[in-house]
Design brief:
Shape: elongated
Number of domains: 2
Strand content: 5-15%
Distance between the termini: 13 Å
Order of helices and strands: HEEEHHH
Helix content: 55-70%
Number of strands: 3
Mean pLDDT: 77
Number of helices: 4
Low-confidence stretches: none
Strand order of the largest sheet: 1-2-3
Structural class: mainly alpha
Amino acid sequence: MKNIDTAFLKSLELLMKEHYQTLQPKKGGSGVEYFHVKGHQDLLFHIEAMINVCVLALGNPNMEEHKNIREPHVHVQTVLEVAAQLIPFEEAELLDQMRELIWKIEDEQEG
């Protein structure tokens, strides 16, 4: 049992070094280089909000006529590009691999 726990922790450590790159621990939460979030759910909330704002902006027939914002479509495109960069694909891969590792260990313990 102790060997399985040690092997699990070593495997987990290797997976984290390889995949846990986007969100970095910060005091009081996690951050994506310059974008501070409280965790994965908070990050996904912000990404969804940015995408929703862009959808609403694109659905506005008067978007191009805004007097205070020049070239609003450029701003919408920029927000969508930032939102795409914030999606934590590496962490998702880590979580998938962790799940597979846990299942493997559970199967070994049952067998």
